[in-house]
């Protein structure tokens, strides 16, 4: 019985430490959200892909508003939009920054290409070129 009790106590200690870490990350994100701009920018404000972005050429390239603040923190709209990414221990703010600065080429907009383009845009890829 004593060994089981010690195992449970170790597990509780580990979980409390994880909770404290998550609480700290939540406080950090909330402070960034409060310090960020009041409104949404970028694609949420109507910027990004224009009506003539594809130009009828079959290739569409866009740059959506994924700019970081001068101090390297995320704007409030990005924190809100990508909050699930930011909470992942292996991803976080740095992973979102790298993703928003990346470029991806998608060839084809068929059964796989069109959902792929949707998911890439939704997860915050900085630039992607779609060749139909």
From TrEMBL:
<dbReference type="GO" id="GO:0008641">
    <property type="term" value="F:ubiquitin-like modifier activating enzyme activity"/>
</dbReference>
<keyword id="KW-0548">Nucleotidyltransferase</keyword>
<dbReference type="InterPro" id="IPR035985">
    <property type="entry name" value="Ubiquitin-activating_enz"/>
</dbReference>
<keyword id="KW-0808">Transferase</keyword>
<dbReference type="Pfam" id="PF00899">
    <property type="entry name" value="ThiF"/>
</dbReference>
<protein>
    <submittedName>
        <fullName>Adenylyltransferase and sulfurtransferase MOCS3 1 Molybdopterin-synthase adenylyltransferase Molybdopterin-synthase sulfurtransferase</fullName>
    </submittedName>
</protein>
<dbReference type="InterPro" id="IPR000594">
    <property type="entry name" value="ThiF_NAD_FAD-bd"/>
</dbReference>
<feature type="domain" description="THIF-type NAD/FAD binding fold">
    <location>
        <begin position="82"/>
        <end position="129"/>
    </location>
</feature>
<dbReference type="GO" id="GO:0016779">
    <property type="term" value="F:nucleotidyltransferase activity"/>
</dbReference>
């Amino acid at each position: 019985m004593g060994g089981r009790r010690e195992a449970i106590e170790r597990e509780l200690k580990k979980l409390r430490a994880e909770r404290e870490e998550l609480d700290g990350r939540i406080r950090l994100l909330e402070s960034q959200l409060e310090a960020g701009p009041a409104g949404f920018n970028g694609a949420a404000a109507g910027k990004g892909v224009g009506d003539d972005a594809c130009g009828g050429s079959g290739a569409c390239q866009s740059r959506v508003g994924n700019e970081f603040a001068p101090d390297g923190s995320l704007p409030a709209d990005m924190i809100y939009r990508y909050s699930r990414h930011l909470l992942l221990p292996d991803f976080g703010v740095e992973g979102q920054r790298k993703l928003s600065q990346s470029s991806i080429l998608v060839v084809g907009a068929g059964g796989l290409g069109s959902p792929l383009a949707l998911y890439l845009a939704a997860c915050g890829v900085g630039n992607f070129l779609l060749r139909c």
